[in-house]
């Protein structure tokens, strides 16, 4: 892997275009995570004098843009791996990694299908080239984090050439599965819990499958099962900052990992890293409503 990055720490005398809570900056975003990052960015920009430009691309493309210094901030569905960490250490760079949510990779089928369950072992074997009851798998992008996640799980370098289809976005996958019986789509759950208005009719035409785990239990990717990691394809989301100074990267990370950000995550259907506090109003008298 050619991982080349130059995140130089800015000179203390240089003028930065942003501080922790004001200014403007761009953020590289794994496109499978865009719905929740957009929600967070909207509220952050409302509360502070800040302008965030989100740059959604596949995981691989986002990392390439990071190496090309198109931004010093990135949102991923994983932390940096050992090779990337070693590179940073060798270049005296200390990225600041902040976990902020837990989401899930989900399998979907057309609502016309009678199936509501899927065996993860069958998916892995299918990815290894073994034919079984699976008709076909549909991914968002060959360079996406969902693809890399399942490839790591199946211990394969790339997707098989037959029986696997890829488009460009999670929305493309949802549309295709909603219109093609028997196909199994692989998407991030946030695209199903918070679809855009134009996508709602397609989301209504697909259903999420419960996944069979190693202990022979079928688990649905509910918010509770994602948060407890009972669902086998739950994954932690990270915002990683290598700006080299206390800019909007650190401010935004603190925001989404804080009270307001965690509430937004809870409302999105994803699981927060920590449960936001709840205000309970205690009344001395019971109101009688007529």
Can you lay out the helices and strands and say which pair or pack?
Layout: E1 22-30, H1 34-47, E2 49-57, H2 59-67, E3 73-76, H3 82-90, E4 96-110, E5 117-119, H4 120-127, E6 137-139, H5 145-154, E7 164-166, H6 170-179, E8 184-188, H7 190-193, H8 200-203, E9 206-208, E10 210-212, E11 218-219, H9 223-227, E12 234-241, H10 248-257, H11 259-268, E13 271-272
Parallel strand pairs: 1-2, 1-3, 5-10, 6-7, 6-8
Antiparallel strand pairs: 3-12, 4-8, 4-9, 4-12, 4-13, 10-11
InterPro entries: PBP_domain, Phosphate_ABC_transporter
Keywords: Signal
Domain PBP: 23-258
Uncertain segments of ≥5 residues (pLDDT<50)?
1-14, 280-284, 286-290
Strand content range: 15-25%
User: Which structural class is indicated by helix and strand composition?
Assistant: alpha/beta
Largest sheet: 10 strands, mixed
Number of helices: 11
Please trace the helix and strand order, writing H or E for each element. Answer: EHEHEHEEHEHEHEHHEEEHEHHE
Q: Which superfamily, in CATH terms, is the homologous superfamily of the largest domain?
A: Periplasmic binding protein-like II
The level of helicity is 25-40%
Q: Tell me the number of structural domains.
A: 2
Radius of gyration: 21 Å
Reported by name, the CATH topology of the largest domain is D-Maltodextrin-Binding Protein, domain 2
Quote the average pLDDT. 88
CATH classification, class level of the largest domain: Alpha Beta
The dominant shape is: globular
Give the N-to-C terminal Cα separation. 70 Å
The CATH architecture name of the largest domain reads 3-Layer(aba) Sandwich
Number of strands: 13
Organism: Flavobacterium cheonanense
Protein name: Substrate-binding domain-containing protein
Keywords: Signal
